[in-house]
Amino acid sequence: MSWIYQARIAAYLRRAGGAGTNEGRGRNYENLLAYLISSIPGCEVTRNALNHYGTEEADLAVSNMRLQQGLPLLPENFLVECKNWSKPVDSTTLGYFVNVMVDRGCSLGVLAAANGITGHRQHRDRAYAIGAAALIRHIRILVITTDDLRTLTEPGDLATLLHRRNSQLTANGTIYFGP
């Protein structure tokens, strides 16, 4: 079964990379994340939910029943922001995501940033500051990348990755960019 899961991930990534428009790239990346999270036992995904005023959109809103074989260590509800950008996500985008989470009353957000978060030192320091300030407010941001997604072989691998990033967040006191 793992080869089917890996083949689906590869197919989603091909579609996300080969889409002719930025919107198409983004939607296909959202499709991949929705598939992956829905594959975790006890997780249900709602897509592209606008707030009442139409000013903020949540790419994915996740209901997590916290099943033992799913995501027992993560909250019952969290948001996923999908950024299939050709460059790393900047700190301003990270700050906006934190604000969306605050407005929605969420304590956890997953930022699926295809190419990670900016490597530019000044913006990277800002991203760390945003992550640390969010954590003080009891808001946790877990960052995952396309490289992370390529390593998955079964739905349990994503659950393990999210639990590990959550632990790394606690250990580091701010968002974790990976090795």
Account of the protein in words:
With 179 residues, this protein is of the alpha/beta class. It contains 6 helices and 5 strands; from the N terminus they run H-H-E-E-E-H-E-H-E-H-H. The chain has a 5-stranded mixed β-sheet, with helices on both faces. Helix 1 packs antiparallel against helix 2 (22-38) and helix 3 (91-104) packs parallel to helix 4. The longest helix is centred in the last third of the chain and has 18 residues, at 155-172. It is globular and about 40 Å long. The model has no long low-confidence stretch (mean pLDDT 92).
Compose a concise summary of this entry.
This protein has 179 residues and is α/β, with parallel strands linked by helices.
Strand order of the largest sheet: 1-2-3-4-5
What share of residues are in beta strands?
A: 15-25%
Q: Return the string of H and E elements.
A: HHEEEHEHEHH
How big is the Rg? 15 Å
From the helix content, strand content and strand pairing, which structural class follows? alpha/beta
Any idea what the shape is? globular
Mean pLDDT: 92
Sheet of most strands: 5 strands, mixed
Distance between the termini: 29 Å
Q: Unreliable segments (pLDDT under 50, ≥5 consecutive)? A: none
Total strands? 5
DSSP summary: helix tally: 6
- Helix percent reads 40-55%
